[in-house]
């Protein structure tokens, strides 16, 4: 079983729509949770950290469910510029594991 | 400006040749990492280093070597023993004493073996 698994998508949504997707992890000792965004042929960039109580950053909301071992990302009011691959990153400490990414395409 | 610099950005090599990818950071981060990304796949950890003069193998270390002689620098050598070296290589760093801290990435090096 992979340490981190994501639905690869693609999620193809119209502008203004809400899109949400999850990421499951296998190591129950994980303490670090992040969502990164990666544009085509570029390096990943931090979108947001995920905290136990859940957190929001503008149109983006991240949740952590330790009991079921998954994190989620919700994007409200999608913009064309949100089109990217979203990587889930999870780790117990220094060794972070990456999911393969969920591709989101926002269409006009 | 602080950041991570990888070079070269693009590299072409013949099969059987060793190549070294450079990674330099001026963020004063203790921990540095090398990842490999193949199309449609997540990042896979090659090597990481928590402190100068010390490093550990990641999940796919075979065919690679690293050194960490200076805090700022963590070069990766792709040896001829690496069977499928063509990939996108990413270097990253973070604070070692903040295990929940984010990873900062360089822009990556795209290696193509002909």
How would you sum up this structure, described in words?
The complex is a heterodimer of chains A (108) and B (114). In chain A, strands 2, 4, 5, 9, 10 and 11 form a six-stranded mixed beta sheet that branches. Chain A has a five-stranded antiparallel beta sheet with strand order 1-3-8-7-6, with no helix packed on it. Chain A has no helices and eleven strands. The radius of gyration of chain A is 13 Å and the shape is globular. In chain A, a hairpin with a 5-residue loop joins β9 (84-91) and β10. With 108 residues, chain A is mostly beta strands. Helix content of chain A is 0%, strand content 53%. Chain B is mainly β and 114 residues long. The N and C termini of chain B lie far apart (36 Å). At the A-B interface, β5, β9 and β10 of A face β5 and β10 of B.
Q: What share of residues are in beta strands of chain A?
A: over 45%
Oligomer: heterodimer
Label the overall shape of chain B.
globular
Q: In DSSP terms, counting alpha (H) and pi (I) runs of 4 or more, how many helices of chain B?
A: 0
User: Residue share in helices of chain B?
Assistant: under 10%
Runs of chain B in which pLDDT lies below 50 for 5 or more consecutive residues are none
SSE pattern of chain B, N- to C-terminal: EEEEEEEEEEE
Write the element-wise H/E pattern of chain A from the N-terminal end onward: EEEEEEEEEEE
> Hey, which two chains have the biggest interface?
A-B, 24 and 25 residues
Ends of chain B: how far apart? Answer: 36 Å
Rg value of chain B: 13 Å
Cα(first) to Cα(last) distance of chain A is 38 Å
């Amino acid at each position: 079983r992979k340490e981190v698994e994501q639905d690869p998508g693609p999620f193809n949504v119209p502008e203004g729509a809400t899109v949400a997707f999850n990421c499951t992890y296998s190591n129950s000792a994980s303490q670090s949770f992040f969502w990164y965004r990666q544009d085509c042929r570029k390096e990943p960039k931090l979108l947001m950290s995920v905290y136990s109580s859940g957190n929001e950053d503008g149109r983006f909301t991240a949740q952590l469910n330790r009991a079921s071992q998954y994190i989620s990302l919700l994007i409200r009011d999608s913009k064309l510029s949100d089109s990217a691959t979203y990587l889930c990153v999870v780790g117990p400490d220094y060794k972070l594991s990456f999911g393969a990414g969920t591709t989101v395409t926002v269409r006009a | 400006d602080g950041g991570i610099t990888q070079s070269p950005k693009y590299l072409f090599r013949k099969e059987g040749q060793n190549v070294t990818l450079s990674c330099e950071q001026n963020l004063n981060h203790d921990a540095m990492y090398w990842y490999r990304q193949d199309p449609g796949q997540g990042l896979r950890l090659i090597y990481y280093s928590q402190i100068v003069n010390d490093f550990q193998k990641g999940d796919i270390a075979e065919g690679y070597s690293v050194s960490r002689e200076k805090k700022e620098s963590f070069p990766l050598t792709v040896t001829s023993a690496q069977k499928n070296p063509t990939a996108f290589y990413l270097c990253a760093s973070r604070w070692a004493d903040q295990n929940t801290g984010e990873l900062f990435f360089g822009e990556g090096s795209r290696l193509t073996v002909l």
